[in-house]
Backbone:
């Protein structure tokens, strides 16, 4: 059969039917996007495209296929459902990785990766495999019907047939969209299974679920800070109710002007299917999965133009999706988000629950029935529980601001250069510093020359700060050069640890990681609410001219001296309610004796 696609958007009373020819392209920039009111393109983007950002992946050769839409029609939803077959038959189903083996992978990632500072969370996938009895395309059409009638709350329910492969699914998550110049992202995390094991109220109060959502919110804010002119404003959280699962979600929105293919590239791929920070998460995925992901964790992207000729984009994440080959092989990839509170048994159960939502469409697993009759919370109780998730978050990202409202005269016109240690928290930090009045340049740690600026900032990143690696050696050299030359220096998280070791302070790996934790600290005489993403900490010791903000056991949260300062936490994080206040306190003293050409003229 010739290529086609069936697309149903949440709440629509019709299904979009797309017909056209399929072309394979190598890069996102090559996706066809005719100017003006030309035809749309539906791009099937595999996970391996992450290599366009220079990130690690096991390259399985899965193609980037594009359906160039030649005919677009809409069919009433009820009519389309009535036209689809009902019979589905598959057999010989099992996960490619046994439960006990997946549990061991979880243990290893928690201990060797999260426990050693490689990141805050990582998504490791496994694949449910089975064989289709009968015609694969007819099976996919029947499964599509079952998803339309049996699932709810899906952002897109879809069937895409490229001529050589078929994908059918009901994805809950918009990754990124662009409409009327507004870029939007939709981080979803936290999983409540409809099996009666616990109530929705218990789920909303679960600290692990709350922290998991806040971590992916931070990670997608990093992406929004790259593709939107003033970063993203946070809206929510909300509940995402589906047939088998309920999730929590935020909506991020910001004005942008990038080509939509560049938006796709800069947001590859969602932290909900990779981890945080994304660059190192890709390394961890490659190490522990050891195989390609196909289309799992990629996106299905509809690109085009509106009536005014402006580019449009709508790109849901390829999860809760079955891939069916022409020879009848069925694959349902699913993943679990591993965080410091994860248990191997809990993450195994999560993968089973996620697979069940897709497999129910193939009549292999029936929809689970509630095991208890505990009443769900009222709408008011839900609203209060959801609203409480924003308590203590940074208003910088939740509120609209008048341009210039935060500009400090002591910082206006000054310049800063941030050395990125492989964590795009630097993009969020850039927006905060610019809001305070600084001009900001970001360079990677691999840059051979660091541009001149009034302030050098050693930024955050994953890894062991005490290790002898090219990155750590380079950062230590930059810290030493700045201290020797009396150049104003600020270290953040990894940069703070590097500064601390350069000053001669010892480092300690925490027994329990501080990944995605918000807490109140004593900050040079003031209580501040800040967010941590770290597994290491510096310990206080007597160093002339250096003062510390530390816990009674000597674990340092911040340090400062003549011309330098460091903070173990992330002032730019959404978890840091007082992040801007910390920068307002630390930065002016670092720059008060700097003679800047941009200021002095």
Residues:
């Amino acid at each position: 059969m010739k290529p086609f696609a069936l697309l149903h958007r949440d709440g629509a009373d019709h299904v979009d039917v797309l017909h056209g020819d399929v072309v394979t392209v190598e890069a996102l920039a090559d996706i066809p996007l005719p100017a003006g009111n030309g035809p749309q393109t539906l791009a099937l983007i595999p996970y391996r495209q992450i290599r366009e950002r220079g990130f690690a992946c096991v390259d399985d050769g899965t193609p980037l296929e594009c359906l160039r839409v030649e005919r677009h029609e809409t069919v009433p939803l009820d009519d389309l459902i009535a036209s689809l077959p009902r019979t589905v038959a598959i057999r010989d189903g099992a996960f490619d990785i046994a439960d006990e083996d997946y549990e061991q992978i979880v243990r290893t990632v928690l201990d060797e990766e999260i426990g050693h500072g490689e990141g805050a969370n990582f998504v490791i996938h496994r694949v449910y495999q089975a064989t289709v009895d009968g015609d694969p395309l007819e099976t996919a059409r029947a499964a599509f019907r079952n998803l339309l009638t049996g699932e709810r709350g899906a952002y897109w329910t879809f069937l895409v047939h490229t001529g050589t492969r078929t994908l059918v699914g009901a994805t809950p998550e918009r990754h990124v969209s662009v409409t009327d110049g507004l870029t939007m992202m939709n981080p979803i995390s936290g999983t409540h299974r409809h099996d009666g094991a616990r109530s929705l109220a218990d789920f909303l109060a679960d600290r692990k679920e709350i922290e998991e959502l806040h971590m992916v919110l931070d990670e997608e804010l990093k992406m929004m800070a790259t593709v939107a002119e003033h970063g993203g404003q946070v809206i929510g959280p909300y509940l995402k109710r589906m047939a088998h699962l309920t999730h929590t979600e935020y909506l991020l929105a910001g004005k942008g002007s990038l080509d939509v293919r560049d938006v796709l590239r800069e947001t590859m791929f969602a932290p909900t299917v990779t981890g945080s920070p994304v660059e190192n998460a890709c390394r961890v995925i490659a190490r522990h999965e050891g195989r390609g992901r196909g289309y799992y964790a990629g996106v299905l992207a509809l690109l085009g133009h509106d009536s005014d000729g402006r580019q449009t984009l709508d790109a849901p994440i390829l999860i809760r999706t079955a891939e069916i080959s022409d020879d009848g092989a069925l694959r349902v990839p699913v993943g679990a988000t591993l965080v410091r509170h994860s248990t191997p048994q809990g993450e195994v159960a999560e993968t089973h629950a996620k697979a069940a939502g897709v497999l129910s469409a193939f009549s292999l697993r029936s929809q689970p029935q509630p095991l208890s009759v505990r009443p769900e919370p009222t709408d008011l109780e839900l609203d209060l529980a959801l609203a409480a998730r924003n308590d203590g978050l940074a208003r910088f990202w939740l509120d609209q601001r008048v341009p210039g409202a935060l500009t400090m005269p002591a910082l206006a016109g000054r310049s800063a250069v941030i050395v990125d240690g492989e964590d795009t928290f630097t993009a969020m930090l850039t927006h905060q510093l610019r809001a305070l009045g600084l001009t900001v340049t970001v360079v990677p740690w691999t840059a051979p020359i660091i541009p001149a600026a009034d302030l050098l900032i050693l930024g955050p990143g994953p890894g062991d700060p005490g290790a002898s690696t090219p990155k750590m050696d380079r950062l230590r050299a930059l810290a030493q050069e700045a201290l020797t030359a009396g150049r104003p220096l600020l270290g953040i998280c990894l940069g703070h640890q590097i500064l601390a070791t350069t000053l001669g302070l010892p480092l300690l790996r925490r027994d329990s990681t501080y990944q995605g934790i918000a807490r109140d600290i004593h900050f040079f005489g003031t209580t501040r609410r800040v967010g941590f993403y770290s597994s290491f900490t510096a310990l206080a010791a007597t160093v002339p001219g250096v003062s510390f903000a530390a816990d009674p056991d000597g674990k340092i949260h911040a340090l400062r001296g003549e011309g330098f300062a460091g903070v173990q936490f992330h002032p730019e994080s959404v978890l840091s309610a007082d992040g801007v206040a910390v920068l307002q306190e630390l930065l002016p003293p670092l720059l008060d004796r700097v003679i800047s050409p941009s200021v002095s003229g």
User: Anything to note?
Assistant: The first helix runs from residue 77 to 83.
